[in-house]
Automatic annotation (TrEMBL):
Origin: domain of life: Bacteria
Species classification: Bacteria, Bacillati, Actinomycetota, Actinomycetes, Pseudonocardiales
Compositionally skewed regions (Polar residues) per UniProt: 9-18
Keywords per UniProt: Membrane, Transmembrane, Transmembrane helix
Short name of one Pfam family: Transp_cyt_pur
Family, per entry: Belongs to the purine-cytosine permease (2.A.39) family.
Chain segments carrying region Disordered: 1-24
UniProt-recorded name of the protein: Putative hydroxymethylpyrimidine transporter CytX
Length: 457
């Protein structure tokens, strides 16, 4: 369907009936070929991540909060993942409904020029995620088979970049082959880890006082996909399918991945660097880990592909394939100098940016319900009040949970102390910032509507 005032977003299949691939530029047709299994397999694979096995430490020992007891960490994982995956599902709906990618949709929310702000931030976070994915692939591959780390980084970078050239073909490959192998591998590793007699999930103490900080970490992992969900759901045949596939597919597998990670961490005394050691001790552990290592390229694929699509919001006629080649090369170079120790800090900043962004979209959608379709043209009128709502949501998040990023978190902690704010431990930064952003956006959208009515009158 055509977007109001913008480039045409049509649907397409090839003359032979074979689903068409994604066009090189935003001005090309949009194939609507993905069903529930295609999308469900894609999101389920994204939920299983090598980063998740060690990344559950961000839930178990959240930045700026006391370490959690294992029962509290499992509960925080489930609660945070359910909330986060539902947010991802919500963010998939507009793409399926309009055929527009995520950052183009923000033209209707912020205006054409102001949508460049979240687009640039999204490019930065996706390059970060893509870099971390190559790092963890190299870490796992080196442990499993040995060899120089740089060779694994370069190899993973090349494979990632090649996959981005045929994105819909990649999604169909996940459904037909990869998902089955991944399910078998994860089930085998879970059986092996939980059957170890030395496993004691009660060891290590901890408490429930940092529960919502841990849940926020689980939410942050999921919501990092919010600004890319429509890049893939735009190819969904039906809107409800896009929501269900993202919510269920991602939610179930992230919970499984984190719980398996908790077991592995318990066996190595909480040492995140050694999380793969008990998996490799299994009789077929090397095979299972290699399957997961090879599959991890779907994470880096999604990040590189969506980075390119986000750049296209700034330059609609840019060829996505050339952008993917450049971005793939960039994250490969970055991965040669980054360590996994920066991961938890990275999460805290991501959550504060993209959770309130979704809140703004929801608040605006409530007010606009039944109104004309938003203007998705490149030069759509600016809506600075929506940027204000987003900023208020971000500030709310940081005042509740400044995270642990050097300088950034220190500055927000100082502001919080100066204001005399002492958030209770039960307060979730994610939920509060989402609600605040949604309410403020709804109020400011009504102000915009009255201002337009006055001007037109």
């Amino acid at each position: 369907m055509p977007a109001q005032g913008g480039c045409e977003l049509s649907t397409s299949t090839s003359t032979s009936g074979t689903p068409a691939e994604v066009a090189p530029t935003l001005e090309g047709p949009v194939p609507k070929t993905l069903g529930f299994l295609d999308q469900g397999a894609f999101w389920a694979n994204l939920g299983v991540s090598l980063l998740g096995f060690a990344g559950v430490l961000a839930v178990l020992a959240p930045a700026g909060a006391p370490p959690l007891a294992v029962a509290a960490a499992v509960t925080a994982t489930v609660v945070g993942t359910v909330i986060g995956s539902a947010m991802v599902g919500l963010s998939a709906i507009p793409g399926a409904a309009t055929g527009a990618p995520a950052m183009v949709l923000l033209r209707g929310l912020f205006g054409g020029v102001l949508s460049w702000i979240p687009s640039v931030l999204n490019v930065v976070q996706l390059i970060g995620w893509g870099t971390f994915e190559l790092v963890v692939i190299a870490q796992a591959g080196t442990l499993a088979l040995g060899g120089p780390t740089w060779a694994w980084v370069v190899g993973a970078g090349v494979v990632t970049t090649v996959l981005t050239l045929r994105p819909l073909g990649m999604l169909r490959l996940l459904r037909r082959v990869v998902t089955v192998l991944v399910a078998i591998s994860v089930a085998y590793l879970a059986w092996w880890l939980f059957s170890r007699p030395e496993l004691d999930l009660r060891a290590g103490g901890g408490s429930w006082s940092g529960f919502w900080a841990g849940a926020d970490a689980a939410i942050a992992v999921a919501v990092s996909w919010i600004p890319v969900a429509s890049d893939f759901s735009r190819h969904s045949r039906r809107v409800p399918t896009a929501f269900a596939a993202a919510t269920v597919g991602y939610g179930v597998t992230q919970i499984v991945c984190f719980v398996v990670g908790l077991a592995a961490l318990a066996l190595v005394g909480g040492d995140g660097d050694a999380v793969f050691a008990p998996m490799l001790a299994a009789p077929l552990g090397v095979v299972a880990l290699l399957v997961l290592t090879a599959r991890e390229t779907d994470q880096s694929f999604a990040n590189v592909y969506s980075t390119a699509v986000s750049v296209q919001n700034l330059a609609p006629r840019a060829d996505r394939r050339l952008l993917c080649l450049a971005i793939g090369a960039l994250i490969t170079v970055l991965a040669l100098g980054v360590t996994i120790d920066d991961y938890a800090v990275f999460l805290a900043v991501i959550g504060s940016v993209f959770v309130p962004l979704l809140g703004v979209g929801v608040g605006d959608a409530v007010v606009r319900r039944g109104a004309a379709a938003p203007d998705l043209s490149r030069w759509a009128p600016s809506r600075p009040l929506m940027v204000v709502a987003w900023a208020i949501g971000l500030v709310t998040y940081q005042l509740v949970n400044p995270g642990g990023a050097p300088l950034w978190s220190d500055a927000w902690t100082a502001v919080r102390d100066a204001l005399g704010i002492a958030p209770p431990s039960w307060l979730s930064a994610s939920l509060l910032s989402f609600l605040v952003a949604a309410v403020v956006a709804a109020g400011l959208a009504r102000v915009e509507r009255r201002a337009r009515s006055t001007t037109n009158g």
